[in-house]
Structures are given as structure tokens and as C-alpha cells.
Amino acid sequence: MVDLSARLPGAVTDRLAALRSRVGSAVFSRVAGDEGSGRRARILGAEGPRWFDDGAAIRTVHGDASMFVGGLRALLLQSLHPLAMAGVAGHSGFRGDPWGRLQRTSYFLAATTFGPAEEAERVIATIRRAHSFVHGTAPDGRPYSASDPHLLRWVHVAEIDSFLTAHDRYGSTPLDAAGRDAYVADTARVARELGVPDPPESTAELAAQLAAYRPELAGTPEARDAARFLLWEPPLPLSARLPYGVLAAASVGLMPRWTRLPLRLPWLPVAERTVVRAGGHAITAGIRWVTSTPRPAPPPMPPVHP
Fold first, then answer.
1. Pfam families per the record (predicted)?
2. pLDDT digits over 1-36, tens only?
3. 137: which strand partners?
4. CA distance 62 to 162
5. Distance CA 168, CA 164 (A)
6. Does residue 69 contact residue 252 with C-beta atoms inside 8 Å?
7. By the 8 A CB rule, do 46 and 119 touch?
């Protein structure tokens, strides 16, 4: 894909570069937080063996802007398990500190996917310690614990299904069938380190495990409250509401039909196949542009090249 700014007059190119830098920095700050630069250096700049090679499927998926859509879908899908939602509502601070939760999650994904093994292991150990303190009683009277292997696996499969579904639809380089299986197998390595028993190793196993959880899922008041907050009440300035709304619509458009009624989500199949899908491609392309490093200017001929 050609960087069109290379074809424009210098003054316009300079303004585009400044805009790209400003917006890209704002997105990075939201996702990575105040410690983002230091964490990026620890992940990308540190030497040492990694869990995954450069060409690994997990790096293709987790390094793409479609993760913004997939991440929001994952939160919506995960909320349908009453015990998992009780833990989130009672301990995660998603209302009081939603950006902090996003930043912690993004760091976990970056460290385990791209970071040196030592950093990945340190982050995993931190998460497992934090999980040991997350326990209580759900509104329906059942006890829950974030260290419960069954709940850990639900969170994992809902997350991986969401990331892969979003990448299939909006990723810059969608995976073939073998690549999709490889992605699920790569994420199983991380899941086992977190304490997930028997994580799926292929897309067929992923679909089967998701289906097995269906009888346990429900649209509780807590889940619907979380959905309203994520979709309609995000703590954002007015200038960011429109692009976030497009992102939210794209995420809802990828939710399975059976989730819509429990979470009170709209189901507009014609709009989702046209307007919402076009908006999803536009917003992910925009995020990809502002967060990527500009490439060297291509030669003047041919006018378009891969």
C-alpha cells in the first residue's frame, strides 16, 4: 500500500506528518499509559530469546489495528459469564479506571507476544499473583475466583475468538486456515502459563470450547451495565466520540447473533454488512496509519504497488 503523503506537496506532507504524529501519540498514550515508552523499550529493545518468532501468527494478529475492534468485542463477550462478570465488577475498576485496565491488558499482550521471555514470565507472574486476591460471591450467591481454571479458560477462549474474528474481518493480512490454527496454538502457550487447563490448539477446538460454555452464559444486569458503559458512556472527550462510536459499532457487528438479546445489543444485518463494515475498515485503517512508522517514499513509477 502506498503512503499517499509521498505524492503530495511538501507543505501538505508536513501537515499530514504532524497530524499523524499527534494523533498517533494520543492513541499510544491511551493504550500504553504514562509508562508506555519505558515498557516499549523493555519489550522491543531488550535482547534475549522470545516465546514467538517474528513470523509467528500471534504476532500477525496482535500487532494489527484490528485488535482495537477485537478487544472491545472480547469485553462484551466475556461479560456474559456471570461469575467472570462478578469478578470484573467487583475488582477490576473498569468504571473508575477503564484506561488503567486497558493499559495493563495491552502491556500483557505486548510482553507475551513480542517481549523477551524473561519479561513475559515476569508479567505472567504478576497477573497470577493479582488473580489470587480476586474472589468473592456473585449476585446469584455463587462463589467465584479469578484463579478458577474454568473461568480462566472462558476468559481466554472469548478473548482469542474475538481477536481472531476481528482480524479475519479487519486485519491488513488475514490468515489462511493453517495460519488461523497456528494463531490459536500460539495463544495456547500463553494460556498454559496463566494456568488455563487444556486451552484450544486449533480453530475447531476453539469453536467447540466456546459452544460448551453456552449453557453457563447469561445477560445479567451487571453484564448489560458493562455493555452500556463500554458502548454508550466511555470516558472520552467529545472529539473522540465519533471515531469511538465507529469502533464500537464494528465490535458489536462481530458479536454472535445469540449474544444480542442478552446484552440488549442491536441487530441490524443490512447496516452491519454495509455501513458498519465500511466504517470498521475505515477506522482500523486510520489507526493503522497513525500508529505505524512512515515508510520511505516509493519511486514515482508505477503509481501503485503492494
1. MPAB_Lcp_cat
2. 445 555 556 655 555 455 444 544 444 444 544 554
3. 143
4. 12
5. 6
6. no
7. yes
